[in-house]
Design brief:
Number of helices: 9
Strand content: 15-25%
Family: Belongs to the RLP family.
Protein name: Leucine-rich repeat-containing N-terminal plant-type domain-containing protein
CATH superfamily of one domain: Ribonuclease Inhibitor
Largest sheet: 27 strands, mixed
CATH topology of one domain: Leucine-rich repeat, LRR (right-handed beta-alpha superhelix)
Helix content: under 10%
Organism: Manihot esculenta
Shape: globular
Distance between the termini: 142 Å
Number of strands: 57
InterPro entries: Leu-rich_rpt (IPR001611), Leu-rich_rpt_typical-subtyp (IPR003591), LRR_dom_sf (IPR032675), LRR_N_plant-typ (IPR013210), RLP23-like (IPR046956)
CATH architecture of one domain: Alpha-Beta Horseshoe
Subcellular location: Cell membrane
Radius of gyration: 38 Å
Structural class: mainly beta
Length: about 900
């Protein structure tokens, strides 16, 4: 009986055990439902959210263990995981999950509309991810985290945290992963961080941490990766860092570190050399030589030392890093030779970047490298003849040997390695012969995107489009001749940027260009193209730049150009075009540069330019046959910086509202002057840009501005009355050799930024206004050969301008550098007293008059250009200009009262 009872008990126990196992295997929760208090905590959490999109539809019913994102323990029924990442939950809440006493894993990441202003977690928490959750109002976040002794991983990146806080004792020493990246910390790295001795991965990147890394970094002896790039850290890297025997990746790029690195990476006794695989020190201020002991870091796969101030030669020991995959020494001050010994055992290498140094490659032409490179960047190094070792490289995708002192032709074998090349830059060399042939691209992952830059070489021969398969093609500044192939649209249907400028191409502009719907930048300037511009433009909806300048094009501007609503820059200058400006161009609302100068356009300047082309920065129509008055609507062009209406047959007065040109008056430097085709899809593509350029006359010289264009402010007007006194940002005012009469404006001192003033060779009379002494930046002044009289003002900047040639040819002037003044000269005309603000009548205010009668053939040229350089540039510039002889325009209809002055001038020039 006892035995049978025992058997019954055993059987019942076995049944209970089997039921428990069955329940566990089937994933059923304890009692089929979650714990009531934990369900209430979850319901309370949900009620605090703004859930207009019903992102938690399953959170109904009694069994919270079946809700989306909730995981319960299969034995106890406690909630252990809560994962609500990327669920679009919103709200400004106080997060209190203390009742979830067994919660171990909490992930609310990727909910950027969720803002938490206070935190309270159960001490059981091991994993916490609040990435992209707003915590900017949660000032005591660190104290809340310090109450989690079991925490292993903490993700707080992109939380807009700005205060990192401090704790006297760290309780979360079990932490292995800490990510504080992409926040707004501006403090030093806190000392408590160095006490988390179990830390394996530390991310501090993209903040504004300052100060140095403490020598206590050696406390983190379990650290495997440290990412502190994109901060403002400075000082030396502590030598104690070489004691981190488990460190695999160190990223300190984009900081302000300085000094030498030999103490950390040149010390053979440190154990870091046995573990380190990835070293990023780029974009800092490190100096000194590259340590020879780097060759002992046998596990290195990535070595980035670019954009520093390292000098000296590259140690040959680098060639022993047989695991190295990426090597970047670019943009330093390295010099010396690079031979095959430096690359001898780099069998894993696929990226080699040494551009921007003074390195000389001296590699045996017969050498066969042990590697297959994908990235080669040797720009500005001395590569010499075209490298023969490249013929073995079948995997090249990015090749940059621009400005590499290559004087050679491109060998025939280059075609064999071209099928994988998606980015090639051989610009600024002395390459000659015919253009290379490229095989069809064999890299589908780039979507057939290919950049070919061969500009500024000596390639000659004809352009054959079958030679290329390009998205961006720049062969400008070569010796190409012949016609542009008519089948260009068939051979390069995906072309976005085409630059063939500065060659000797002739014939017509191919009409087939307009079939390339992807075309964005088209530069055919400075060739010998002739004929009319094709009239079909409708397909090119992405075109931003057209430059046909300096050719021999004729005819009028096609009406269809007005359909290019994305057009930003239009250059047709220096051709033989004629006709009126078509009204269809008023549709080009994005246009910033319109240059039609040096043609034979006629008619009136359209009024709609001022109303419709509101984005214009550059308007140049000089040297045409435009007539009539300047339309008042031009005053609406608030962004205008360069205006050139010179050398036309226009009449009337210059509108007083020209003072409304805000960009000139305020020295506005906003705006883009380099235009790119659509953003390159992959990092590493060579950048091909179209640099905006404008020609401006300054003191008789025609200068071309491109890179410094954003500093230029210029107005060039002729044969009109005009007012410029409101343009306080003007730096250079040149109105020499005109027919100006009357007085110098009494308030010329209001041109407070003026650095150069030239009013010579006019018919100005009266005294020099004393406000001219208020021009504190004036470094160049020329008032010679007028009818000025009275005392020369003194004081301020004028005291440094003591050259008598400034005033020569004005018999009535006296004062410094000239004859002594009589007592009568001391008496100043009314309105010219120093400090006077009395307004004069119109004949003595801000008006300059010029002869407008029949037979007036010489015209009027006034160039006001503003070069906003730093002080040393300005001084150098004006010094250069002053050393150049001024070109003198001699008027045809000479008035009798100028004979004396002309005779005096010729006599003085003869004596010189």
């Amino acid at each position: 009986m006892g035995t049978s009872s025992a058997n019954v008990v055993e059987i019942l126990a076995l049944l209970i055990l089997l039921q428990s196992v069955s329940s566990f295997c089937n994933g059923d929760n304890f009692n089929g439902s979650c714990i009531k208090t934990e369900r209430e905590a979850l319901v309370k959490f949900k009620s605090s959210l703004v859930d207009n999109s019903n992102s938690l539809p399953s959170w109904v019913g009694d069994d919270c263990c079946r809700w989306d994102g909730v995981t319960c323990d299969n034995i106890t029924g406690h909630v252990v995981n809560l994962v609500l990442s990327w669920t679009s939950i919103r709200g400004n809440i106080s997060l209190h999950l203390g009742n979830l006493s067994n919660l171990q894993y909490l992930d609310l990441s990727l909910n950027p509309s969720l803002a938490i202003h206070s935190l309270h977690f159960p001490s059981s928490l091991k994993y916490l991810n609040l990435t992209y959750v707003l915590l900017d109002k949660c000032e005591n976040w660190l104290q809340s985290i310090n109450m989690l002794p079991s925490l292993l991983e903490l993700e707080l990146s992109n939380c807009e945290l700005s205060i990192i806080g401090d704790v006297s004792h760290v309780n979360f020493t079990s932490l292995e992963v800490l990510n504080l990246g992409w926040n707004n910390f501006h403090s030093t790295i806190p000392s408590w961080l160095y006490n988390i001795t179990n830390l394996r991965h530390l991310v501090l990147r993209y903040n504004a941490f300052r100060g140095s890394i403490s020598t206590d970094i050696s406390n983190l002896n379990s650290l495997a990766s440290l990412a502190a790039d994109f901060n403002s850290l400075e000082g030396n890297i502590p030598n104690t860092l070489n004691r981190l025997c488990n460190l695999i990746e160190l990223d300190l790029g984009y900081n302000k570190f300085g000094g030498e690195i030999s103490g950390t990476f040149g010390n053979s006794s440190g154990c870091i050399k046995n573990s380190l695989e990835n070293l990023y020190l780029l974009y800092n201020s490190f100096s000194g030589s590259i340590p020879d002991n780097l060759g002992q870091f046998k596990r290195l796969k990535v070595l980035y030392l670019s954009k520093n101030s390292f000098w000296g030669s590259i140690p040959v020991s680098i060639g022993q890093l047989y695991n190295l995959e990426r090597l970047d020494f670019s943009e330093n001050s390295l010099h010396g030779k690079v031979s095959e010994l430096h690359l001898l055992n780099l069998r894993s290498l696929f990226e080699l970047s040494m551009d921007g140094n003074s390195l000389v490659f001296d590699i045996d032409p017969e050498w066969i490298p042990p590697f297959q490179l994908s990235w080669i960047h040797l720009s500005s190094c001395e590569v010499g003849p075209f490298p023969q070792w490249l013929r073995t490289q079948k995997s090249i995708r990015f090749l940059d040997m621009s400005n590499a002192s290559i004087s050679d032709n491109i060998p025939d074998w280059f075609e064999n390695i071209s099928s994988n090349i998606v980015s090639l830059d051989l610009s600024y060399n002395q390459l000659f012969g015919t253009l290379p042939t490229f095989r069809k691209l064999n890299t589908p992952y780039t979507n057939d995107y290919r950049v070919i830059l061969l500009k500024s070489n000596q390639f000659d021969g004809f352009l054959t489009c079958s030679d290329f398969d390009a998205t961006i093609l720049d062969i400008s500044n070569n010796l190409l001749h012949g016609q542009i192939p008519q089948n260009i649209s068939d051979m390069m249907p995906s072309l976005r940027h085409l630059s063939l400028s500065n060659n000797y191409l002739n014939g017509t502009v191919p009409a087939t260009l307009w079939r390339i719907e992807s075309l964005q930048i088209l530069d055919l300037s400075n060739n010998q193209l002739s004929g009319r511009i094709p009239s079909c433009w409708g397909n090119l909806t992405s075109l931003t730049v057209i430059d046909f300048s300096s050719n021999m094009l004729s005819g009028d501007v096609p009406m269809s150009l007005g359909s290019q609503e994305s057009l930003v820059s239009l250059h047709l200058q220096n051709n033989t075009m004629q006709g009126n400006i078509p009204m269809s161009l008023r549709n080009l609302e994005s246009l910033e540069t319109l240059d039609l100068s040096m043609n034979s356009f006629d008619g009136f300047i359209p009024w709609w330019i001022g109303e419709s082309l509101s984005s214009l920065k550059v308007l140049s129509v000089h040297s045409n046959k435009f007539e009539g008055e300047i339309p008042l609507q031009l005053c609406y062009l608030a962004s205008l910086r360069i205006l050139n209406l010179a050398n036309n047959v226009m009449t009337g007065t210059i509108p007083n509202c020209f003072g409304n040109f805000t960009a000139i008056a305020m020295h506005e430097q906003k705006g883009q002057w380099d235009y790119y085709a659509n953003a390159d899809p992959y990092v590493g593509f060579a950048r091909a840009s179209y640099g905006e350029n404008v020609q401006v006359y300054v003191k008789g010289m025609e200068l071309e501005y491109s890179r410094t264009l954003r500093f230029l402010y210029s107005i060039d007007l002729s044969g009109n009355n005009f007012e410029l006194m409101n343009l306080s940002g003007l730096q250079n005012l040149n109105l020499s050799t005109n027919k100006l009469d009357g007085h110098i404006p009494w308030n010329i001192g209001k041109l407070s930024s003026l650095e150069s003033l030239d009013l010579s060779e006019n018919e100005l009379s009266g005294s020099i206004p004393f406000s001219i002494s208020d021009l504190n930046f004036l470094s160049h002044l020329n008032l010679s050969f007028n009818y000025l009289s009275g005392r020369i003002p003194t004081g301020n900047q004028l005291q440094t301008l003591d050259d008598k040639s400034i005033y020569i040819g004005n018999d009535g002037l006296c004062g410094p550098s000239l004859n002594n003044c009589s007592n009568d000269a001391d008496e100043l005309p009314k309105g010219h007293e120093k400090g006077s603000t009395t307004r004069k009548d119109d004949s003595e205010m801000v008006w300059f008059y010029s002869g407008m009668g029949m037979g007036f053939a010489a015209g009027f040229v006034g160039v006001c250009s503003i070069l906003y350089f730093n002080e040393s540039w300005r001084c150098a510039w004006f010094g250069l200009v002053d050393r150049v002889y001024n070109k003198l325009w001699v008027t045809i209809a000479i008035k009798a009262n100028q004979v004396k002055r002309k005779f005096l001038r010729n006599k003085l020039e003869g004596n010189a």
